Amino acid sequence: MSHPSAVRIFLKTIVARAFPRFVGSYRNRTWIVTETLLPLIGTIAMIYVYRALHAPARYLGFVVLGGVLLAFWQNVIWAMATQFFWDRGQGNLELFAMAPTSLAAILLGMALGGAYLSLTRAVTVLIVVSVLFGVAYSTSGILPALGVFILTICALYCLGMLLASVFLFYHREAWHLADALQEPIYFLSGFYFPIRSLGAFVGGVGSLIPLTLGLDAIRQLILPGTPQFIPLHWEIVAVVGQIVLYAVLSQVSLRYLERLARQDARLILRST
Amino acid sequence: MDIAVETRALRRVYKTRSQEVVALDGVDLRIGRGERFGVLGPNGAGKTTLIKILVTLLLPSSGAAFVDGLDVVTQFRELRHRIAMVSGGENVGFGMLKVKEQLWMFSQFYGMPSNPAKRRIAELLERLGLSDAADRRVSGLSSGMRQKMNLIRGLITNPRILFLDEPTVALDVGAARDVRDEVRRWMAEDPTRTVILTTHYMMEADELCDRVAIVNRGRIVAQGTPSELKQQVQQNAIVDIQLSPGRRLLDALREVDGVAGASVAEQDGIDRFTLLLSSDAALGGVMRIVEGSGREIRGLQKREPTLEDAFVKLVGRGMAEEEQG
Amino acid sequence: MIATIAQWRGFKAATWLGWEISSNWTRPLMFLIYSVLRPISAAFILVVMYRVISGRAPGTTDYLAFLVSGVAFWSFVQYGFAGLSNGMAEDRGEYRMLKYVYTSPVDFYLYLFGRGLAQLASAVASALIVLVVATIALSLPIDPLRVNYPLLVVGSVLALAAVIGMAMAYGFLQLQAVDAHGYGELGASVLYVISGAIFPITVLPGILATIASLSPLVYWMELIRRSLLGSHAIRMFPTLSDADVLLRLVVTTVATLLLAHLVFSWADRRARRRGLIDMESNW
Lengths: 272, 325, 283
Fold this sequence. Notes:
The structure holds 3 protein chains of 3 kinds. By secondary structure, chain A is mostly helical. In chain A, 79% of the residues lie in helices and 0% in strands. Chain A has helices at residues 6-27, 30-52, 57-81, 83-90, 92-98, 103-133, 142-180, 182-188, 199-206, 210-222, 232-263. Chain B is an alpha/beta fold. In chain B, a hairpin with a 2-residue loop joins strand 9 (211-216) and strand 10 (219-224). By secondary structure, chain C is mainly α. Chain C is built from 10 helices and no strands. Chain C has helices at residues 2-23, 28-54, 60-93, 98-103, 108-138, 149-174, 183-193, 206-212, 216-229, 242-273. The relative contact order of chain C is 0.14. The chains are: A mainly alpha, B alpha/beta, C mainly alpha. Chain A binds chain B through residues 1, 3-5, 8-9, 12-13, 15-17, 19-20, 23-24, 27-28, 90-92, 94-101, 106, 259, 262-263, 265, 267-268, and chain B through 14, 52, 55-59, 77-78, 80-83, 85, 87, 90-94, 96-97, 101, 104-106, 108-112, 153.
């Protein structure tokens, strides 16, 4: 019996699953308020902490860039990794799971749809806070920084898929764990300070999160005077390695945990 | 017979920290291609578990199941192209999408080309009288409209086997009839299509299904055409008695010689008893019990058997009693 | 009397429900880690930011104590404000039970107060542990025997009443939106900036500093630091005595509660007029 190819279904699924997110962002504009104001206020609060300490201007830049990448981390955690928790509660998960598509495509669609909001949020933080507080960047580093940013986001989304597979199985506890891990991740990734301040060991542990090294590399590229954690080129190599590692792990994990979920009835439980 | 669905000694146990619940206990089924097959039983009988296994969402604890010739455990990826499921009372999807957008989204998960999918959606919306609602948001639909939309979702991708899990639950009479009519029409379009329907509405199974399996406590207690099942009680006299409220009578009635089964349902303050009598002579014993109870007889009729009567005979109790445990 | 007993039962049920919703998903140990991990990390972020700039110069522990005490007690606002206001949206959208509570004879204020108290209970453990861990790890000048407990308790009771009042009003305002996801956190983060929790409000630009000075939270933070740290407290209001700060807290709390009542009543009427209490917010 002939049916559409797996690649075709994969691509169509990504577009279709991203669709409600795109539509939602203009049909329900209240989201835009929280998506932009919340990170903006959080970033500004941290700027004032440095201001109170009379920190050099580049430290304000550290906070701004941290705020930019934070938007994508939150998208990955709340709009991707934990999303199956909500989908199961609504009964969507079982319809996704019994379609001849892959859960990875569903996740990528969610992420793509959410990335639009994250980008709005990131650009708002970047422009508003930089202008308000007079943060300057090295223009020569902007293009390479953009390249590192794209690599970092790829690695981040691969990690997001890996986490989603775990959350698929551990549902509510995992959701709360993601909630509980927000600040620890901000700490370990050095969202508000150079990662070098954490020292080799803690910084090394934090480097397992793709944002850590990506953020440090971007800072090195556009904020001269950033204390170097490891050399820039090694940071880029590490981020590329994380893309491969997390992509492979996420696929293996999704398949394995989807089977476990079928076994333990976790695709069909509706409890939240 | 060309087989659409087959299960062999299918068993499913749910384990929690404190207990094990056997939802299916050795289910053997053979459903032919082109059949409208009903799985009938009270809530908690195992119907939904059976469906979830057949649509690849749940693995059996033991036994085997094949749908369209494919093993649900190992060949699930191929199988998912060929099936669809619609459950009653579903609230799935995204409330802020329009009806046609939501349907399009689900069609894409099956890789359908966009334009043919949109044409098919428009055609099905028209058939189910939902054309005017195509541009309405899903969150604003009534439960009847929502269920029709869900049925369309199941039909867009033209599945070979359609699973309907309590498709008319909580619908008003008109919406339930529309859903049943569409299922009939869809089946009539192609004789190789198969529908597996779970329900606890006896009338629905009687009206819609070619064959029915009665499930109770995870086991199939009987299967056959509705008329075959009803024939099991054909030799019995079916008597409905309406009594004023009073002390419990059901157990005493079941003890009467010649009573093959009895059930009771309370409605509008009156207890409506259904008795399956092996001969009319048993009615005398029944009347003595009723008179002794002091309860007033509000009505008494003898009538043709239904599937509900077959259930009472097979299980010994009414469906409502089974649901209450 | 019977009515009072019924209200008391409603209040107890609301408190129990709030606690169950916050904690029933896991084992107690996991819940403890959950309650502690976030504020500890939030405190350490500030500690590292401070150390990056100031190193270990003399007098640094006073400023660290300023930061840590602010973050530790901020848990009460985070849980009480965001938790309660989000709880109202969840009761409507996720659990779909708000309409049943609203139409029950239990006073709605009392129900929400119970839900809010349960949220605050979660904050107690996290605040205590942050203080203990940070005091030991950073040698902060906090001596449990020298803490001015009466001042701490009176200040906190007043401020938490204001927090719950604000959360009730804000929660009802949230119900005006189809989807209020994230609004609780948004409100809490605005309060964070103007409360003096992690920096003195003097660094804020003029208009924000003025708004901050009208918030009871800023006086509460000042009293917390004075009662915990004594002479080591970095003061946001050096010219005010303890009694002056307490008086300002009382005045701003009463004003906040009055304002919250007005907003709540308006939002309540509007919600009923527009049928928002049982609106489906699923998407």
